[in-house]
Amino acid sequence: MTKNMSLLLCFLLLLSLPGMCMAEQTYQITEQQLTQLEQNLAQLSNNNQQLLQQLSQSKQDLTTASNQLEKLKAQLVTLQARTQLALQQQQTAQASLQTANESFQKFEQEVKSETRKLKLQRDIGYAAFLYMAVK
Predict the structure, then answer these.
(1) Helix %, strand %, coil % of the chain (to 5)
(2) What is the CA radius of gyration of the chain?
């Protein structure tokens, strides 16, 4: 009998345990608190929606900015190439100008030398003419 009684007590104890362990705590809130909670949830949902829209807009802006950056990089490469070409052309023009200047100076010296020779020949011709005229 003690054995049966022990089994019965164990059995009753086992039946009562799930009810004790599974019991969830309950809270009571007022209607005003429930309304405030619903309003807060609605506001959070609205804020979340706005943030998602802003995120989407930011992604679009980032994509646009990235595309513009790529275009500007390409333009920069093009401008650098043009600048390099312009520098080379400037150096070529500078060298040509230097050569032309040297040629001009050489020509100017030749003209001066030729002018001196012609003046000398003229003076000799005048002197010969005067000599012949006086004689």
Answers:
(1) 90, 0, 10
(2) 54
